[in-house]
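Now for my pick.
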Amino acid sequence: MSSTTAASSANTTKTIVITGGLGNLGTKLSHHLLSTTTSSSTSSQYKVYLIEHPNFITSSSKQHKHPDAILLPCDLGNPSAEHAIAIKKALEEADCLVHFSAVNPYPNATWSESAQSMDHVFYIFQLAVICKGKFIYSMNLMRCYHCCVLIFVVLHE
């Protein structure tokens, strides 16, 4: 690789979309990504979109959001047309989708809540495929009977 190619690829900003963006894992990942800089720059090498259910966007949850993260409200279980368009635009720009959204991420999740969480997975993955997503990482922690389901999908262009 030539030094010009290496330099231009080193300065490329990567766009990451995180579902469950204001949750525990989404918040930690977005802060980490947006605090990561290259040796040649003081700005982050990432642009981060956080997708969060409107009911969970509160003044308290907003305090934990990194100031450079872009917040997109959306109910992945029942998205409005307006929210779907905004998410589709973010996914078209994205280099990576990290899916942390869950209806109830705790061990006491019912089968109904787990099924609703899987609806989130199917919806966001379907949109990512339509948008020609390159890489999707999903960690949907459905702890029914202390079971952890980890889904890892790689899509090719």
Summary: Residues 111-130 form the longest helix (20 residues). Helices lie at 3-10, 24-35, 59-63, 81-93, 111-130. Residues 52 and 73 are 5 Å apart (CA to CA).
